Amino acid sequence: MMTEPLASRIRPLSLADFIGQEHLVGKGKPLREATEGKHLFSFILWGPPGSGKTTLARIYANALNAEFHELSAVDSGKDDIKQIVGKRGALPLGKPKVLFIDEIHRFNKAQQDFLLPYVERGDLTLIGATTENPSFEVISALLSRCRVFVLNELSEKDMEKIIARTKLKVPSEARGWLIQMAAGDARQAITTLEAAQNLYGKISVETLKETIQSKHLRYDKKGEEHYNTISAFIKSMRASQPDAALYYLARMVDSGEDPLFIARRMVIFASEDIGLAQPTALVVANEVFRACETVGYPECAINLAHGVAYLAQSKKDRSSNDAYLAAMEDVKTHGNLPIPMKVRNAPTKLMKELGYQKGYKLYDKESYLPEKLNKRKYLKGRE
Description:
4 domains
C-alpha cells in the first residue's frame, strides 16, 4: 500500500496555515480578498518551483466550494478538458468548475486555443500554474481573460517554518544546508528530508547530500531563468564588474548552458559595448568562441572565464553601435534615398555617360550621404 508523500500530508488547507507570499495572501491582499470574498475568476500563478502555486489553487477552489479538477500539461490534452467540461451550456447552477493546469506553459498554441472558448463562456474557471513568463508562454487571448499573480521564491524564514512543519528532527546545520540547497523550493526540501529519513533513519548534512547526490541549479535553457541569467551576465560585463560576470558565467556553466551560446554573446558584446575603446576585444572574443568550438566542456570554461575577465575590465565605448542604430533609424524613416551619382558604380559605358561616378575622387571631403542626409553625423566625437 502506497503512503501519501509527506509534502501532500502537510499541505495547508487554508490561508491561515499557508506560509509565504504575503504580498498576495496577507491581509487586504488580492488572493486573500478573492478567496475570502469567494470571487470567481480565472487567473495564472507565475512563480518558481515549490513556491505554493498548487496549494493556493486548491485553497481557492475549496473556499469557493468548487468542483476541482487538476491536470498536468505534460501528459494532458484536449480529451481531458472535454471530459471535465462535459456538455456545453450555461454556467452550472450547482458548484462552479475550477480547472487547475500545472505547467500550463507546456500546452501548445492549439491546445490553448481549444481551452479558450470554455473559459470565455464560463464553462470553467481556469487556474494556470507556470514557472515561465506567461507573456511568452500563454496566448494573448487566453492571457487577457486571466489575472496574473506573481509568486516569489520563498525566503529562508519561510523555509524554516515549512521544515518545522514536517515534525522531523533536523539539526540546525542540516537545516541550513538544506535551505541553501533547495533555493526556495519547499517541495524539494520536504521531499529530500523525507527520503533521507526513510533511507538512513536520520537527517544530517551527510545523509541529505547522499540523498540528493548533487545540487542542480534551477535553470531552464528555454525559460525565463535563462534570459535573466544571460541578462545579468551581460549587464555585469557592461558595468565593468568582473566578479559578478564570472559568477553568472559559473551559474550558466554549472547548469550545462551551451558554451557557444555564451561565447556568441561575448562576441556581440565586444563590438556593441567595447567597440572602438579597445578593438582587440573582438579578437579575444572570437578566439574564445573558436576555443569553445574546438575544446568543448569542461576545459573551455577556462577559456570563457579568460574572455569574461578581459571583456569586463576593458574600457567601454558604444559609439559605433549607437552610430549604426542612428543610421538605421534614418533608413527606416526615409527609405531608400537616392545615392549620390559620384559614388555609384559605373561598370558600363552607358552608366558613365549618364553621370555615374562622375566627380568621384580619392579622399573626398564632401559627404557621400544622400543629399537629404548630407549634414548627418552618426559617429559622435568626429570633426
